Each structure stands twice: as C-alpha cells, then as structure tokens.
TrEMBL record:
Family classification: Belongs to the pyruvate, phosphate/water dikinase regulatory protein family. PDRP subfamily.
GO MF entry, a single one: protein serine/threonine kinase activity
Catalytic activity: N(tele)-phospho-L-histidyl/L-threonyl-[pyruvate, phosphate dikinase] + ADP = N(tele)-phospho-L-histidyl/O-phospho-L-threonyl-[pyruvate, phosphate dikinase] + AMP + H(+); N(tele)-phospho-L-histidyl/O-phospho-L-threonyl-[pyruvate, phosphate dikinase] + phosphate + H(+) = N(tele)-phospho-L-histidyl/L-threonyl-[pyruvate, phosphate dikinase] + diphosphate
Pfam families xref list: Kinase-PPPase (PF03618)
Class in the EC hierarchy, top level: transferase
Name the record gives this protein: Putative pyruvate, phosphate dikinase regulatory protein
UniProt KW keywords: Kinase, Nucleotide-binding, Serine/threonine-protein kinase, Transferase
Lineage of producing organism: Bacteria, Bacillati, Bacillota, Bacilli, Bacillales
Cited function: Bifunctional serine/threonine kinase and phosphorylase involved in the regulation of the pyruvate, phosphate dikinase (PPDK) by catalyzing its phosphorylation/dephosphorylation.
EC number: 2.7.11.32, 2.7.4.27
Positions with a binding annotation for ADP: 149-156
Length: 291
C-alpha cells in the first residue's frame, strides 16, 4: 500500500480526532500519513460515502461521533466493506457512563461550546483590566456592568470576580476633585452598580494599606475628615445619577457579586444607553477594597 491515508470523520469540527491521528502517526518513521477531515457529518449517506472512499483508497477511518446510532451505522458499514474504522470517543463515553452512573447528552460539538465559554471569560478578564480604575471612559458604555466608588471599596477585585463570571466590567473611582466622566450618566438602566462603606471601616482599611506600603498612616488619605468629604461627594454623585447603593461594609466580594448577578440576571435586557428624560434609571453602587 503506497498511500497512507486516514479519513477523520466527526459530527463536530473533527479537531479532536485529527489530533489523535496525528499523535499516533508521529510514532512512525515512515513517510507522513495523509489526513482528510470530514467534519459536521449529520447523515448516514455521508458516512456510507466515506466508507466507499476508504475502501477504494485502502484507507483507515478514525471518527468521533457521539450519537450511538451514527456510530453503530459507520462501524457496521465499515465491517461490511472490509474497512478499518476506529471509534475514538464512543467507548470512552460508554465506560464513563457505566462507571460513573451518568447519562450522556449525545450532543455533538460540546468541546467547542466549552472553548467558546473559556474565551468569553478571557475576553471579560482583559476588559476588566483595560477599563479598571477609570483608565478609559469609553469602556463605560461597552461594559455589561459599571462599578463606582471611592478608593478602597473593592471595585477592582469585584470587577475581576465578575469577569470570571463572563461579565465585562468597568469601574470608575469617585474623587471630589475630579468630575465623573459624562459616560457615567449615559449608562443603561440597571447596569451601574455601586458600594457604600462606613467611614470607620474605610479609615481602617486605608491605614492598613498605608502601613503595608511603609507610609505614614496619618496621611490625608487616611484622615477621617477627608474620608467623610469623599463619601459626601459620593452621595452627591449617587443622587445625580439616580443610583441604588449596596452597603459593602461587612460584605465579602463574593457576597456583593452575588447581589449584582441576581439583579443582572433578573433583567431581560440591558440597554446600552438611556433617553435623556429617563429619570427612572437605577444604579447599584459597588465600593471595593483594593488589596
């Protein structure tokens, strides 16, 4: 047999089967094995055609078909025509089902679905980094969620936590000397979230932060009068925007995230903008404790 040919047949993209065939072929010093992929097979006619081609070319068929009926047909057709057909995934599915007492879904393409989910998470994490701490106001209108709060109110860790839930989050610090970006007042209803924290708790957090940096914990940053000024300005911004407030004084990031996700997932739609005369918008303000 001069030609070394393997038909890779799959009811999905066929990447898994092709990788297995390549791994097996790499164990031989002889000339490379040619691989022809036949992806997204949905009917028995196509399977029969592949078997006929494999017989004509003295080829092997390696396949990943999750639907039992399709697997059985291909194996029977190959046996009838004297073609070698190797089931890569079927036996493992059945063994796992029996041993673990689980019922398979028998749905093609689930690996691809998982891959897409993974990349959505990576995209959300990168988004949170890019639009952290008000670095680029353009991210506000692109975000699924916007967090606002004074310094040390957990905006950054909360953004990252929500990003791992595949939500794109931008956060904006509220500072008395800096006017909030105009995009903050254009966010759609229910997309802006904020956290409130008690002055005493914030003072303690800021002093510990300064100590960890080897700085004087009596600096203006950790001064009670300054903290009250910042929180008062925060209240003004909240009233201007029309935000609801979540008190995170004694809440872990996970607890706050849970509150936000319940509100988000309870909404049917998340408009990216609002009408200028829409005074009903509500914003949940999430303060963060930067670590």
């Amino acid at each position: 047999m001069n030609q070394r040919l393997v038909y890779v047949v799959s009811d999905s993209g066929g990447e898994t089967a092709e990788l297995v065939v390549k791994a097996a072929a790499s164990q031989f010093y002889a000339s490379p094995v040619q691989i022809k992929r036949v992806p997204y097979v949905e009917d028995k006619t196509t399977l029969a055609e592949v078997v006929a081609l494999a017989k004509m070319n003295q080829a092997i068929i390696a396949f990943t078909l999750v639907v039992p009926e399709m697997r059985e047909f291909l194996l029977a057709e190959a046996a009838r025509e004297g073609v070698v057909a190797y089931d890569i995934i079927g036996p493992l599915i059945e063994k796992m089902s029996g041993l673990f007492q689980l019922t398979p879904r028998y749905e093609p393409g689930q690996v691809r679905v998982l891959d897409e989910d993974y990349f959505k998470k990576i995209e959300a994490i990168e988004f949170a980094v890019k639009y952290d701490d008000g670095r680029d106001p353009r991210g506000i209108l692109r975000a699924d969620i916007v967090l606002i709060g004074v310094s040390r109110t957990s905006k950054t860790p909360l953004s990252q936590y929500l990003a791992h839930k595949r939500l794109k989050v931008a956060n904006v610090p509220i500072v008395p000397e800096v006017e909030p970006p105009e995009q903050l007042f254009q966010v759609g209803p229910g997309k802006c979230f904020g956290l409130k924290i008690s002055p005493d708790k914030l003072l303690s957090i800021r002093r510990e932060r300064l100590k960890s940096l080897g700085l004087n914990d009596q600096a203006i940053y950790a001064n009670m009068d300054r903290i009250k000024e910042e929180l008062a300005y925060f209240d003004e911004v909240v009233k201007k925007i029309g935000c609801d407030v979540i008190d995170v004084t004694n809440k872990a990031v996970e607890e706050t995230a849970s509150i936000i996700m319940k509100k988000i997932h309870g909404q049917r739609a998340l408009p990216s903008t609002r009408h200028e005369n829409d005074c009903s918008r509500r914003c949940i303000f999430t303060e963060k404790l930067k670590c």
